[in-house]
Amino acid sequence: MANRSGRPAKGDELNSKEKIIDTTVSLIKKKGADAVTVRDVCKEAGLSIGTFYHYFRDKDDLMMYFLRETSFDSFKLKTPVSDIAGRISELYMHLIHKYIDLGLDFMKSFYSTGNRSLSAYMGEVDGAFAPGTVMARCETEMNTALDNGYLKSGSDIHLICTDICTIVKGCVFEWCLSDGGMDIESTLHRILDLYLENHKNNG
User: Fold this and answer.
1) Please, are residues 91 and 77 in contact by the beta-carbon 8 Å criterion?
2) pLDDT grade for 193, boundaries at 50, 70 and 90
């Protein structure tokens, strides 16, 4: 049981946080991300609101957990830099597979226009992607491809990465519309390959 400060009893900390996360996944599947409240999560998990605020600042911070659980800064990729479309597809699929593992209902409910944490994660701050995000790593990879001569000199890498993010969101949305019937990985790779063809240095 949590004490007055909201800190769980010693030994219960990991268990309490996992309860909050597991309960949130369950509620998102049932009600959608927009409808879930902190009170709902605490009631369903059998935890005090103080315990919730020991781990998360608010609902948006909790939702951001599903996006920022993994830092992409030092994530190892197997696809060579020369296959930039394949490399970027591999990068984004690491994030997408995490959501697919949580189920179609979760994906449909999480990728909504009302999910402010998703908008914040996929957006920019002062014209830059937040450190550790998949978009920031995408920009690093694209700059590496540019430096190695695989992309045209003078390419606007930030704009290209913004376009790629839009393409990824479109593929995720289409996957949800098809009830998971679309092969999202091959579709994403194919569209990225077509898009990046205009930016490749074929000279």
Assistant:
1) yes
2) very high
